[in-house]
Amino acid sequence: MRSFMFLFFQTVFISSAFAQTNLIDSLQIIISQNRQDTIHAKALMDLGITLERSDLKRSTENYWAILKMPDSRPFDKFKTNAAVRLAGNYSAMGVLDSVDYYFDQAESFLRSNPNDQKLAYTLYNGRGIHLNRIGKFEAALSAYDKAISLDHQVIGMDNVAGLYINLSNVYKQMDNQKSNFEVTYKALDIFEKTQNKTGLAFVYNSLGTAHYHIKNYDDAEKYFLKSMEYRKLLGDKRGESMVLGNLGNVYMDQAQHQKAKEYFELAMEMQESLGLKEMVGIQLYNIGRNYLLMEEPEPALAHFQKAQNVFREAGISTYDSKILADLGKAQSLLSQEKEAYQSLKMATETALLQKQFGEAITAFRNLKEYYLTQGKFQEALEAQSKEYAYRDSVGIGALQAQLKELESRYALDLKENEISLLKTEQQLDRVELAKKKANQNLIIAVFTFFIILAGILVNKYRIVGRTKRLLEVEKLRNSIARDLHDDLGSTLSSIHILSQMALQKKESPDIGLFSKINVQTASMMDKLSDIVWSIHPNNDSLEQLLSKMQEFAAEILDPKGITYQFEVGEGAEQIKLDLEKRRNLFLIFKEALNNAAKYAESKHLDIKLKMEGGRLHLFIKDDGKGFDQELTKKGNGLFNMQQRASMMGGNMVIESFPNMGTTIQLSAPIT
C-alpha cells in the first residue's frame, strides 16, 4: 500500500511540474520582450508568485525588477504587491532589516491609493504572517483583523479563507485551540465551495496540526497526507517540506524514531535548498527532540544548540521556551547541572512571558524532573503544581470534544446538502416520468420513491445512532482517562514526593509530612469514589444524584453545625442526565459546599434544584462572610466550577459581597 501511494504522488508531481514549467516558459517569453508596461509587470508578478514555493532567489529577483519599473500610477499596485512579497520572502529567509524596509515601501505606495482594498489586504496579510513568524502574536492578530474587516467581495472569498488559515496559525501559537478549530473550519467551508487546491492544501495541514495537538495521531496523519497530495499536485516544495516535518512529529510521538528522523532530515534538506531559515531551525529542534526520546542526550543537545543559533540569526523568538525546556533536560541527563537549571528556569519564564501555556506545561514538567534528581522535593512539588495548573487551563479533553463537535457539524452539513440534492433530482425525475407514463406507472414510481426515501432515512438514523453511541463511549473513555490521569495521577505524584521528603528525615519523623500524605490519600480515595459512582449505570437518574448530593451535604455541613434547607422542584427526580452532565453538576455542587464549609464561616445554607423551560437550575446561598470579587483572585476551585458549567453547555453566576454572603446560580440545558 505504501509503495502504491509513493508512485501515485510521484506521477502527479511530474505531471503538475510539467504544467508549471509551461507556465514559467510562457511568462519568461513575455518578460524577455522588456516592454516596461503593465503586461510586463503582471508577468513578473505572476512568475515571482509561482516561484515562491520552489525558488525564493529567482522569485525575489522578479519582485526587484517590478520595483525598478517607472514611477507612475499604473505601476503602483504592482509595486505595492512586489514590496509586500519581497518582505515575505526576506522574512522566510530571516533577513529582518530588509523585511521592515520593504513593508515601509509598501505602506508608502498604499498611501497613494488609500481606497484600494486589495492592496490594503495584501499589506495587512503580509504583515500578519511576518509578525506571527517572529512571535509578536497580538500584533499579528491586529493586522489580520484589519484585513478581515475589508469588503469580502472585493478581496475575494479565497483570500478570506486564507486569512482564516493564517489566523489559525496565530491561535495555535497562543494555545487558543478553540478559536484555532473554529477559523480552520471556516476556511475549509470556503475552500470546499471554491475547490481551491492551494487553499485545501493549507487547510488540511492545519487540521492535521489541530489533531496532532490533541494526540489524535491517526486523524493527524490522514489530514497531513491529504495536504501532501495537493502539495505535490501543485509542485509546492516549500509546503511539501513543511508537511514532511509534521509527519515526522506524528511518527516521533508514536515512537517510530528512525522513520521520524528520516522525515525530519528530508524536510530539512528541502528547506535548506530553499533558504528557509525558520523551517530549518524547526527541523533541527525536531531531530534533537527525537534523539532525546531515544535517550541519546549528546546528539540531542548538539541539535538544540544548532536550532538556537539558526533562530537567533533569523531574529525569531517564537521557539525559545520550547527549545530551552528540552535543552535543559538534555543538559540534566549529561550532568551539566548548572546549565540545566539555568535553561529550565529561563524556559518557564519565557513561556509565561509569551503566554505559551502549552510550552509552560513541558517546561515545568522538565523542571520538576530536574529537582527530583537533585533531591529537592519541595521545589519539585511546587513545579508539579504549576505543571498541572497550566495543563488544566489548556484543557485537552475539552478541546477534543470541541473538535469532534465541529467535525460532526461539518459532516452533517455535507450530508444534508447531499440529501437535499437527492430529493431535488428525484422530484425532477418524477415530473419527467409523469409526462411519459400513465397514471398507474406514476403511482408505482411515487410508491417506490417513498420506499427508497424511507430506506435512506432509516439507514441515516441507524448510522447516526451508532455514531452517537460510539462517540459517547469514546467520550466516556476520554473522561475516565483524564480523571484518573489528572486527579489521581497528580495526587499520587504528590504523595510520592512527600514520602521521599519524609524518608530524608534521619531523626524524628516529620508529623506534618505524614499529615499531608494522609490528606492526599483521603483526597485520592474521595476522587476515586466520585469517578466510580459517576460511571455506574444504576446512578443514571437525577433521583440517585439528589440522594448523593443530600448525603454529601449532611456529611460536610452537619459536623460544622451548619444548618441547611434542600429544596427539590416538582418532577426533577425523574429527569435523566447524561454521564458528563451528571458528574459536572455534582462536582460543582461539591465545590460550592466545600467553599461554604471551609471559608465562608456561614451558619445556614439554602439549596434549591428545579427544572424550568427545559433547563436545570441549581441555586446555593450561604449567610457567610462573603468576599470582594474585584479584590479576590479566582482560584482553581472557582475556575473549575465555571469551566464545568461551560462543559454542560450552561452558565454560572457567582455573586458575593463582604459580610453579605455568597450566591451561586447554575443554569444548564437538560439535553
TrEMBL record:
TPR repeats lie at residues 121-154, 201-234, 241-274. GO terms for cellular component: membrane. One of its GO terms (molecular function) is phosphorelay sensor kinase activity. It is an enzyme of class 2 (transferase). The keyword Membrane applies. Residues 396-441 form a coiled coil. Residues 1-19 form the signal peptide. It catalyses: ATP + protein L-histidine = ADP + protein N-phospho-L-histidine. Keywords: ATP-binding, Coiled coil, Kinase, Membrane, Nucleotide-binding, Phosphoprotein, Signal, TPR repeat, Transferase, Transmembrane, Transmembrane helix, Two-component regulatory system. Residues 479-671 form the Histidine kinase domain. The chain crosses the membrane at residues 442-459. InterPro entries: HATPase_C_sf, HATPase_dom, His_kinase_dom, Sensor_HK_TwoCompSys, Sig_transdc_His_kin_sub3_dim/P, TPR-like_helical_dom_sf, TPR_rpt. Its EC number is 2.7.13.3. The keyword DNA-binding does not apply. PANTHER family: NITRATE/NITRITE SENSOR PROTEIN NARX-RELATED, NITRATE_NITRITE SENSOR PROTEIN NARQ. This is histidine kinase. It comes from Indibacter alkaliphilus (strain CCUG 57479 / KCTC 22604 / LW1).
